[in-house]
Amino acid sequence: MSFFSFGQSAEIDVVLNDADTRKKAEHKTEDGKKDKYFLFYDGETVGGKVNVTLKNPGKRLEHQGIKIEFVGQIELYYDRGNHHEFVSLVKDLARPGEITQSQTFDFEFTHVEKPYESYTGQNVKLRYFLRATVIRRLNDISKETDIVVHTLSTYPELNSSIKMEVGIEDCLHIEFEYNKSKYHLKDVIVGKIYFLLVRIKIKHMEIDIIKRETTGTGPSVYHENDTIAKYEIMDGAPVRGESIPIRLFLAGYDLTPTMRDINKKFSVRYYLNLVLIDEEERRYFKQQEITLWRKGDVVRKSMSHQAAIASQRFEGSAASESALEQAAKEESG
User: Fold this and answer.
1) CA–CA distance, 143 with 101 (Å, rounded to integer)
2) One of this protein's GO BP terms (predicted)?
């Protein structure tokens, strides 16, 4: 390669050891599309090979060393110049010297800590990647390979139901109840809404799942609300004494676990938003935070069976409570 050439004289490729068998997960990119990446969990070893292929065999490639890094970083879109690294590991693969033919280097990062879930949002991106670099005097040759990390949780010990009231004095009084406050990403939200007083003409009622992303600190805090799901509960006017059941399956929506104060850079929270619209297009709503968590890939009961178990607690029988408790024990087991 001539002194003035901008072309690269070698190509780098990173191949994971278990690429043939490792599971892949879909993950959203910055442009909103979804790609598949190799899936890892906290504590798993990341190992493989770095292939350095010379474009002109027989022509030597001088270098100041060859290395591979494992990086976990957070990038805030309004501060793109700064990447906040929370994991940074380096392995030297070769000392300074020269390469006269294509070479392969083995690497292994043992039991790597990956504390947070991969995330691409409106204003922030948390990513993990391997970066292999041939260090050169003028221009380094490097290649980045992204992976996706999922964080798993266990069944929450405390998972109380949500009971709330919404009222406008002498006009409207409703109570709503959801079967629990913490849901895994494939769960079913089961609930009931009771109309105790109805003196306004309600024409429409829905539940929204709202994702709220918060980035930054102090004066530079940004909030982004995104309506992930809209679930129509009722189309038409309710009457006093009426109760309406709710059954909302989460598996079909693009959800992540709840993330609270990740590396003091961002949070992602989820809310159930109950919305009532009257005939004059006035909106009445009540919002309640829920916690979402990711469950490991254990043998799952069918979604309809989960919904049936969850809805039993609203039937008022003593047996239904014990059935729900038993289901919880089975899930945690």
Assistant:
1) 19
2) intracellular protein transport
How far is 88 from 130, CA to CA, in rounded Å? 10
pLDDT, tens digit (0-9, with 9 covering 90-100), for 194-252: 888 877 777 888 899 999 999 987 788 899 999 999 988 877 777 788 888 999 999 99
Distance (Å, whole) CA 19 – CA 147: 12
The rounded distance, in Å, linking the Cα atoms of 333 and 327 is: 10
Mean pLDDT of the chain, nearest integer: 84
**φ/ψ of residue 182, rounded to 5:** -125, 125
Give the contacts of 140 (CB within 8 A, at least 6 positions apart). 133, 134
Say how far apart CA 114 and CA 43 lie, in whole Å.
7
Tell me: the pLDDT tens digits for 77-105?
Answer: 888 778 899 999 999 999 999 998 999 99
CA torsion 306→190→257→332, rounded to 10°?
-40
Separation CA 295–CA 292 (nearest Å): 10
Q: Are strands 34-40 and 24-28 parallel, antiparallel or unpaired?
A: antiparallel
Question: How far, in Å, are 14, 67, 71, 170, 230 from residue 52 at the CA level?
Answer: 9, 11, 20, 76, 50
Query: How far is it, in rounded angstroms, from Cα 81 to Cα 83?
Result: 7
Q: Which residues contact 55 (CB under 8 A, 6 or more apart)?
A: 8, 9, 10, 11
User: Which residues does residue 71 pair with via DSSP β-bridges, in sequence order?
Assistant: 88, 129
